[in-house]
Amino acid sequence: MFKESILYIGFAQSIFAAFVLGTRQKVYIADRILILCLLTIAFRFLVKILSFEQITLIDPDFSASLIPTSFGPYLFLYTKYLINGREEFQRRDFLHFAPVVAIVTLHLFFLRDAISFNEVSFFERDEFLWARILFGLIFFSSVLIYTLLTFQRLNVYRKELKSNISYDSGGQQLIWLNFIALLFSSLFVIYMVVGGVNALTFSERIELAPVTNFGLTTLAYAVSYFGLRQPSIFVSLYKAIKTNGLEFEDESAKTKFTKSQAEELSLKLNRHMREDKPYLNPEVTLSNLAANIGITKYDLTHLLNDFIGQNFFSYVNEFRLNDVIKKLEDTSYDHLTIMSIAYECGFKAKSTFNGLFKQHTGLTPTEYKRKTVQKVQIN
């Protein structure tokens, strides 16, 4: 009963989430990719449901291959298009699904009635052992490669983000995509281990179906939950960045400064930060600050990274932290809460402020304030 129930639950959840995404007022390329991903998961559930009813459209064991070979490309492409905000799908990205097309074609038209993907008989020494091993290697490689590619794309994006904005809203970091990638790879590892035990012993030591069905349902719920909960997946981050006058760094646009030019610009920049305090604006951007001192954003990035030794995020927030510390030590600000002071000094998120403060001073804001009060009482 549980086996069948989990299939219906996973199928219903995948279809429902795909429907909600597809009926939004504005559906972006990234959303369409997520919809296809959910429909692929739903198809896998449908195949299993029909197999319980003795209706066979495709080998239920083989249908499991659709997830490891397609979910990785879906996740990577979703991440890619969410970040770059392109309005049209690039044709070359269809190549990411070539392995899926290849194994489905090979199975349906050449090996359908001759090969079984049941794990118990996976390593049987027959004429199709090579095909099963080849398919298994494709599945494993797809999961590994696309998980790594997704993490790489997210890391580059976050690095560039810190070079352009001075705040962290949480949603922009897309941390949930790390979780989905780890969940997907972890479920696949569990599947490989359980299936491997059965395959190597040529017996069903552990029933694989409940494991895969429960894991896939968990994955469907996780994608749906985070996808529908995270506002930033329904808007183009690229457009949002453009709206704020930001662009990712173009290496070819850098200007090479002489040492004396860099020193002069550094003095000008630091003076502007101290006197005009642009960091008090929670959403000050690289472009804003560059325009204020009369250079391009590429020049400012070059100045910060190569001469001052900080990225834009850490540079601006250091001024904010110093301002907070100064006010925490000033008794005339005792009527304000610590977070009120932080917001007044340009911080936008409590979590970002607390993390940076602890990193900067070695103490939490509360510990630092308590220590400051004790010092004043002693004096």
Feature tags:
mainly alpha, Rhopdopsin 7-helix transmembrane proteins, single chain, 68% helix, 0% strand, Arc Repressor Mutant, subunit A, 16 helices, 379 residues, elongated
Query: What is the total number of structural domains?
Result: 3
- CATH homologous superfamily of the largest domain - what is it? Rhodopsin 7-helix transmembrane proteins
CATH topology of the largest domain: Rhopdopsin 7-helix transmembrane proteins
* Low-confidence runs: 232-253
N- to C-terminal separation?
73 Å
CA-atom Rg in angstroms: 27 Å
For the record, the CATH architecture of the largest domain stands as: Up-down Bundle
CATH class of the largest domain: Mainly Alpha
Counting H and I runs of at least 4 residues, what is the number of helices?
Answer: 16
- What is the string of helix and strand elements? HHHHHHHHHHHHHHHH
Strand content: under 5%
Anisotropy-based shape = elongated
The largest β sheet comes out as: none
Helix content: 55-70%
Mean pLDDT: 82
Q: Class by helix and strand content?
A: mainly alpha
Structure overview:
This protein has helices at residues 2-22, 29-52, 60-63, 66-84, 98-111, 129-162, 175-201, 208-229, 237-243, 259-275, 286-293, 297-308, 312-328, 338-344, 350-361, 365-378. By secondary structure, the chain is mainly α. It starts with a helix and ends with a helix.
Summarize, please.
With 379 residues, the protein is mainly alpha-helical. It has helices at residues 2-22, 29-52, 60-63, 66-84, 98-111, 129-162, 175-201, 208-229, 237-243, 259-275, 286-293, 297-308, 312-328, 338-344, 350-361, 365-378.
